[in-house]
Structure formats: structure tokens, C-alpha cells
Design a protein that fits this description.
Shape: elongated
Domain MobA-like NTP transferase: 8-167
Pfam family, one: HD
CATH superfamily of the largest domain: Spore Coat Polysaccharide Biosynthesis Protein SpsA, Chain A
Organism: Desulfotignum phosphitoxidans DSM 13687
CATH class of the largest domain: Alpha Beta
Strand content: 5-15%
Keywords: Hydrolase
Domain HD: 225-313
Strand order of the largest sheet: 5-4-1-6-9
Helix content: 40-55%
Structural class: alpha/beta
Largest sheet: 5 strands, mixed
Number of helices: 16
Length: 368
């Protein structure tokens, strides 16, 4: 895949003074931070990627070249960011429609975020586009190349932010369920947060889950309480079982399993939404929270914990006596007896598996 007409400028010239280590070469997800930023764009088909270098260029530039990007040295890098931006913009391939601008210390952005921004920009390439999470704009902006000459003409104390403010009427925001657009590794604490985020990039965190819920469900929708309740029970199950399960995956799936509850075949609809948002592992768990396929010879899996937690939570609260609820459904819906009975049997099997793994009863697990 090649994305024509879009370039990327990555800023990696600074001293990293607050970090006390050279940020572009610090490992994030098993790769240097600068390479992760390059891969973010090259993985979306962008071939014109300029990395502005300065401090420790001798160490940085070979890494940049090996990653398939073009290093451009800014001799005046110590004077501030504006000159580095101008140096990068000046080296963008001619004839391009737009370019991303990304500081190298913001490496926790999902590839799907860049993909959606490219798609949106191509429908209106004269607008400046900003990613947004929870009402806050973040990185990377996608700017039309029509602004190049004005950027190159900027002189301090003016900044790129000033120019972008002048373009407010031509600026669009794109809401993303990606907290990474706001996260930087400017200091050791920020670096630790970014490293943790990248380690779980394919799973939305709690804030991102809430953003998805806010998009899909009204603030007073009763399903919201159910989602929170299922997540609470699922977390207790995670901590109880001895089998290795991914707690982040369980919590995300629990918080999102009924996000499309008002639609027919809501499990499949919710899974489709999460696939589109770039969360296939969560989608797989959500898709099976109504009709699950069990492997009784495998360790307890994340999808089982979400499935079982969902069966314990009713509109009135937590009730571990799911047996009478299934009996009631059978009496009320005899035409669906086969599917109801299978769900009941699966619930019983999962309870037995959880109790065997935890070495205690469900009653004791929930009481702890």
C-alpha cells in the first residue's frame, strides 16, 4: 500500500534535557522511539518521511536511514523548535497535498488513527486536520501543503501555533478513541506511561472505553450501569483464577460488550464496531459474550470470564443464581430452547472451570 500525496515530518533534533537520556533512541515496544514514529507513517503507505536531526545526529541518522526515512540535519537546532519545523517542511517532496508533523516523543499513536486522518484529509485536502480525544486536540496535525510558504516565512517570536490559530476557520477536528494523541514521553514518568500504553496498544484503556461508550450510549442509558457491573465482576474473576489471562483485555471487553445493545444481534454489531476502531482482540471477546465456543481442554480464557460475569449481572444487581433465570427464559421462549439451553450449559461449564482454576467457589470469589 502506498499513500500518494501525503508526507510526514518527524522532529527529533532536541537535547532531551528533561528526560536525562536521548529520547529518539530510547526503546518503546522493543524498537527505538524514532523508528516507531517512522513505522507509524510508513505502515500507512507514506514514503516521504523526513526526520529532522540535531543533537547526537551521528547516532540517530543511521537508525533513521535503516528505517527507510530521510534524515535532515538542522544546524540551528539549539535555538528552538520553529527552525526544526521549517527545516523539515522545506525538505518535503514537491507536489504533495499535505504533511503530518510529529515530535518524536509522541510514539503511542495507533496506526488506525493515522489511517482515518488520511482518509478524512483526502476528502478535503485544503483543511488543516487535528486528531481529538475527549475534546482535547493532540498530535499529529495533518496540514495542507498550501501552508508551506507561510510556515517557512515565520520568524520568532511567532510560532506554528500562531499560524494554526489564524487558520481556525479552515481547521477540522477528528474524534479518535486514541489517548496516545495526547501522550508524550517528555520526562521519565511520561516515558513509563508511553511504554505501558504501547505494550497494550491493541486494547483500549478505561478512558478510551468510556469515550466509545459515550459515543454509542446516552449519558443516562441504563446499560451503562450494567457495563460497569460486569467489569467489576470480571475483574474479581481475573484476580481469582490461576490461569494467565490478560486483565486489560477482560476489562475492555466487559466495559464494551453491550455497547451496541439496542441493535439486533448486538454482539455481532458491537464486534463490528470494535473491528472498525482497530481492536480485533476485544471484538473477538465481545462477539462471543452471547454464544461462546468453549475449549474445555485449554486454560480459562478471557472470553469465558466476560461471558460468565455477564450472566451474573442483572438489571437489579449481581445474582449468582443464574439457574432460575435460564429456567424462566426457557418457559417464556420455548421456541428458542436449543440456544438458551446451550448458553446455560456453557455458563455451568465456565463456572466449574473458574472454580477449579481459583480453588474456591464463585460465592467465595465474589465475597473476597
Amino acid at each position: 500500500m502506498m499513500t500518494s500525496g501525503i508526507s510526514a515530518v518527524i522532529l527529533a533534533a532536541g537535547f532531551s534535557s528533561r528526560m536525562k537520556a536521548f529520547k529518539p533512541l530510547l526503546p518503546v515496544g522493543g524498537t527505538p522511539m524514532v523508528k516507531r514514529c517512522i513505522d507509524l507513517f510508513s505502515g500507512n503507505g507514506i514514503t516521504d518521511i523526513v526526520v529532522v536531526t540535531g543533537h547526537l545526529r551521528e547516532q540517530l541518522e543511521p537508525v533513521v536511514r535503516d528505517a527507510g526515512a530521510c534524515p535532515v540535519f538542522h544546524p540551528g537546532f539549539a535555538s528552538g523548535m520553529l527552525g526544526s519545523i521549517q527545516q523539515g517542511v522545506a525538505h518535503i517532496r514537491s507536489g504533495q497535498a499535505g504533511f503530518f508533523l510529529l515530535p518524536t516523543d509522541i510514539p503511542a499513536i495507533r496506526p488506525t488513527t493515522v489511517a482515518r486522518m488520511i482518509q478524512q484529509f483526502q476528502s478535503d485536502p485544503l483543511r488543516l486536520l487535528m486528531p481529538c480525544f475527549n475534546g482535547l486536540t493532540g498530535h499529529p496535525p495533518l496540514l495542507p501543503c498550501g501552508l508551506k510558504e507561510r510556515i517557512l516565512a515565520l520568524a520568532e517570536p511567532s510560532t506554528l501555533r500562531d499560524l494554526m490559530a489564524e487558520e481556525k476557520d479552515r481547521t477540522g477536528t477528528l474524534t479518535m478513541h486514541d489517548r496516545g494523541v495526547l501522550m508524550d514521553a517528555d520526562d521519565p514518568a511520561g516515558y513509563r506511561r508511553v511504554v505501558h500504553k504501547v505494550r497494550h496498544l491493541d486494547i483500549p484503556d478505561r478512558e478510551e472505553c468510556l469515550a466509545i461508550v459515550n459515543q454509542e450510549l446516552a449519558e443516562d442509558h441504563p446499560i451503562r450501569n450494567h457495563l460497569a457491573q460486569v467489569a467489576m465482576i470480571a475483574l474479581k474473576l481475573v484476580h481469582a483464577v490461576a490461569d494467565p489471562v490478560n486483565v486489560d483485555l477482560v476489562i475492555a471487553a466487559a466495559l464494551l460488550h453491550d455497547v451496541r445493545r439496542m441493535e439486533k444481534n448486538h454482539a455481532a454489531a458491537g464486534a463490528a464496531l470494535l473491528h472498525d476502531l482497530g481492536f480485533p482482540r476485544v471484538a473477538e471477546v465481545v462477539e462471543q459474550h452471547m454464544n461462546i465456543e468453549l475449549d474445555l481442554h485449554a486454560p480459562v480464557q478471557e472470553k469465558e470470564l466476560v461471558y460468565f460475569a455477564d450472566k451474573l449481572c442483572t438489571r437489579h444487581g449481581v445474582d449468582i443464581d443464574y439457574h432460575h433465570r435460564f429456567r424462566h427464559r426457557l418457559e417464556k421462549n420455548p421456541w428458542a430452547a436449543t440456544s438458551i439451553w446451550k448458553r446455560y450449559e456453557n455458563t455451568r461449564h465456565i463456572q466449574a472451570r473458574i472454580e477449579a482454576s481459583a480453588g474456591k467457589s464463585i460465592t467465595k470469589i465474589l465475597a473476597d
